[in-house]
Amino acid sequence: MKTDFNTPSSRPVAIWLLVGVGMIIIQVLLGGITRLTGSGLSITEWNVVTGTLPPLNETQWMTEFDKYKQTPQYELLNSGFSLRDFKFIFFWEWFHRLWARLIGIVFAVPFIIFLVQKRFKPAMVKPMVILFLLGALQGAIGWIMVASGLTGDAIYVKPTRLALHFVFALGLLAYTYWFALELLLPREKILINRRIAVQTRWIIGLLVLQLVYGAFMAGHKAATAAPTWPDINGYLFPPQLMAGGEGWLDLVDNRITIHFIHRGLAYLLLALIIRQTVYLFRQKGPAIFTRTRWWPLMLVSVQVLLGILTVLTSTGIVANQWGRFEWMAQLHQLVAMFLLLSLVWILYLVRKKPV
Predict the structure, then answer these.
(1) Chain centroid to CA 1: how far?
(2) Which ranges of the chain would DSSP assign to H, the alpha helix?
(3) CA distance 296 to 273
């Protein structure tokens, strides 16, 4: 996207995209609530149109409940559920899917309006197509993830597919945000510093890996495997590392190994962002740069603190109840998204070469 999109006619498009950014953040948070409440497998079908409305009478509710009773999760975990219990978990999965549909509408309707108004420049066509493809792909991955928990002896979705769903959602979030910045910020605001630009790319790459392991932590419920800090069950290097007997698969299946890697990556990110911030404060630039260059350091510090609190409060988890752990986990996820966007912001403002 080398063409300068920053014109007055493009501003409504940018605002539209930023609304989309906000809605995607809410959608990811709803996904977190769905996971934390164990609601993700309550709807056993993917009906794009007919699934928009929830059951409207007792007969429809019993039909949906009967479908849920055929799942491994009900048989192995929730066989004591009443209809009232089922309605609670059904709500969060239904609302998560409803919000996804609303995102689709919010993207589609203004798109048609802007198309009629001829606000889209030719250079915007490709990124716009990518944006819609990413949205459609994310919906498909969501169903693939849910389907992984509906067969065999699975009582939850597969952690690897949960991670894929999460990372693609963040990819959609970051791409939408970058597109909006292209429309909002003039080229003269961009700085040239190859060192900072390269560092920021590496940090974002490391953060993506960290977010994958965050999803593994969630999918394997690994916080409860080592609810201590700064040690891991009394060890800096726990003896259970790579001890699951699965070789390299321990990297994605061994709860202690996942826990160890997730913590280690957090400390490494903190160190790298501190180092990067030193360089950022040595760099002179426009006011918009000097006012915002501290954002990544502030957010990663809060994120590390929330990660510690999430682990320590995991001992208080009570099934089917929302407590301190759930609040910490949700805040941890929210700040992770803000941290990613703050680094995308720096990456946009500081480039390796002129654009």
Answers:
(1) 25
(2) 11-36, 58-69, 72-76, 83-116, 125-147, 159-184, 194-219, 250-253, 255-282, 287-292, 295-313, 324-349
(3) 7
pTM of the model: 0.92
Tallying the residues shown for the chain, one arrives at 355
Q: Look up residue 55 and give its DSSP letter.
A: P
Helix (H, G, I), strand (E, B) or coil at 52: helix
Q: CA 158, CA 253: separation in Å to the nearest integer?
A: 10
β-bridge mates for residue 236, sequence order? none
What distance in Å separates the CA atoms of residue 230 and residue 234, rounded to the nearest whole number?
A: 9
3-state secondary structure of 240: coil
**Torsion angle defined by CA atoms of residues 31, 34, 35 and 41, in that order, rounded to the nearest 10 degrees:** -110
Dihedral sign from CA coordinates of 4, 7, 11, 12:
negative
| CB neighbour list of residue 142: distance below 8 Å, 6 or more residues apart | 100, 165
Residue 70 backbone dihedrals phi, psi, to 5 degrees: -85, -5
- Block mean pLDDT (10 aa), the chain, length 355: 58 92 96 91 81 89 92 88 92 93 91 85 83 88 84 81 93 95 86 93 97 94 92 89 76 91 96 96 91 96 97 88 92 97 96 79
